[in-house]
Specification:
Length: 146
């Protein structure tokens, strides 16, 4: 009952009786989606995977994951952090296996998380399961040849 009265009272207020809320917010916002700003991205579909992973001149780490996967929720942010430390030398593609089953089948993903290291369109390394940051850094260094 009290909620109904409060809602009726709020709805009965005219714009001039509403409490002041400070200056209006500016309506223009800067938004950038350039690849140079981000070292990781979500794969949208098969052609996006082909363009941004297979045909990419940079090495790409592909994280096959699922929303329901507990270890994926731990590995994902950890992997993103380690990839970001590489300052653009390597990129990270995130592939949800429930949304992109065809890619999971094509790359023989039988468990998640599965992480592939790709260079010039070829899978050069792979691991399944969770890794700590030191192991992930070694995995990336091997990929970029550092």
């Amino acid at each position: 009952m009290a909620q109904r009265l409060a809602l009726q009272r709020l709805l009965s207020l005219t714009p001039r009786t509403l409490p002041p809320q400070g200056p209006p917010a500016p309506h223009s916002r800067a938004f950038s989606t350039s690849a140079g700003c981000r070292s990781s991205f979500n794969v949208q579909d098969g052609s996006d995977f082909q363009d941004r992973v297979v045909n990419n001149p940079k090495p790409v780490v592909v994280d096959f994951h699922a929303q329901w996967c507990g270890p994926c929720k731990i590995l994902g942010p950890r992997l993103e952090k380690v990839v970001a430390k590489q300052e653009g030398k390597v990129l990270m593609a995130k592939v949800d296996i429930d949304d992109h089953t065809d890619l999971a089948i094509e790359y023989e993903v039988s468990a998640v998380p599965t992480v592939l290291a790709m260079k010039n369109g070829d899978v050069v390394d792979k691991f399944v399961g969770i890794k700590d940051e030191d192991q992930l850094e070694a995995f990336l260094k091997k990929l970029i040849g550092a």
